[in-house]
Amino acid sequence: MTHFGDFEPLCHQVPSYPWCNLFYRQLQHHNSSVLQGDSADPSAAPVGINPECGIAQAGHDGSLANIANIIACALSMILVVLLVFWTSRRRAAVGRVEFRFFLVLYFLTLPFQLISTGSFLQQGSTALTAITAIHAGLVAATFWALLANAIVSTQVVEDGTLSSIVPFNFFNLAFFIATGYIALDVGFSFTSVFGPSNPPADLHSIPLFVLTSIWPGAAAILYFAIMTYVVLAMLNEVRPMWYFVLAAVLFVLSQLDFFLLSKVICKGAAHKVDGTFVATVLETAAVAVLYFAWRSITEESWEDDMYYPR
């Protein structure tokens, strides 16, 4: 029976689910008998724990690793750099500094995603485990930055000032450190607090599950709810709302692809690619639409550009 906090169904059913790398290391050191089939050989094992479909590591049986997602991440990084540049030019726009922080954090998740799902580092290796833990911390911090941008948009504190930037970055750092530490403890079992799953086959960790699965979804929903209030109630506008709706649709589609269609794509492509690259493209598209949504509610700030340098 599956319990709340069990990663076993995800690591078995969802190809290239990055947090499985942490449990692979854990099992390798505490109960390697759980690792069977494709997962039994760490030099060839795909991302996952006994996955139904996975991409073999680069070089094994001619595998090119998770090449589609590697390309998607690389192209997404280029686009996000452009978004950061365009955001920086809007010096008088409300929430410019905070939105740029969000974009930078999202940018940082991409190279770590590229590596943690890329199938070119050996499963169970120290490098892959550590990189995956950093990736988890960055994801948690990115979704805090997303939610914080919505809070800033309400003007409960003045954007770009210490009263906004200090708590913004404090919680960014707190989410990164807390999630990163828990992920490292799951992988390396430094302590018994967040360490080995019991029983091992359940791949159980409630804190990691909450911070990497529940928290991102909750933050995205809260962000959408707050921005709906800001646009419709505070600004009394309708047109910008369509950007936020489109971004929400793209994000939901990315998650549906990743969790429901990725295995279908993997099997259809004979284990050469999975749906991770589609999810990456859709997520990056959602971030790009968020930029245009943010721009659409700060357009008038261009006229005051010279008076409010930041």
TrEMBL record:
<keyword id="KW-1133">Transmembrane helix</keyword>
<dbReference type="GO" id="GO:0006457">
    <property type="term" value="P:protein folding"/>
</dbReference>
<feature type="transmembrane region" description="Helical">
    <location>
        <begin position="173"/>
        <end position="194"/>
    </location>
</feature>
<keyword id="KW-0472">Membrane</keyword>
<feature type="transmembrane region" description="Helical">
    <location>
        <begin position="214"/>
        <end position="235"/>
    </location>
</feature>
<protein>
    <submittedName>
        <fullName>Uncharacterized protein</fullName>
    </submittedName>
</protein>
<feature type="transmembrane region" description="Helical">
    <location>
        <begin position="99"/>
        <end position="121"/>
    </location>
</feature>
<dbReference type="InterPro" id="IPR022057">
    <property type="entry name" value="Chs7"/>
</dbReference>
<keyword id="KW-0812">Transmembrane</keyword>
<feature type="transmembrane region" description="Helical">
    <location>
        <begin position="277"/>
        <end position="294"/>
    </location>
</feature>
<feature type="transmembrane region" description="Helical">
    <location>
        <begin position="127"/>
        <end position="152"/>
    </location>
</feature>
<dbReference type="Pfam" id="PF12271">
    <property type="entry name" value="Chs7"/>
</dbReference>
<feature type="transmembrane region" description="Helical">
    <location>
        <begin position="242"/>
        <end position="265"/>
    </location>
</feature>
<dbReference type="GO" id="GO:0051082">
    <property type="term" value="F:unfolded protein binding"/>
</dbReference>
<dbReference type="GO" id="GO:0005789">
    <property type="term" value="C:endoplasmic reticulum membrane"/>
</dbReference>
<feature type="transmembrane region" description="Helical">
    <location>
        <begin position="67"/>
        <end position="87"/>
    </location>
</feature>
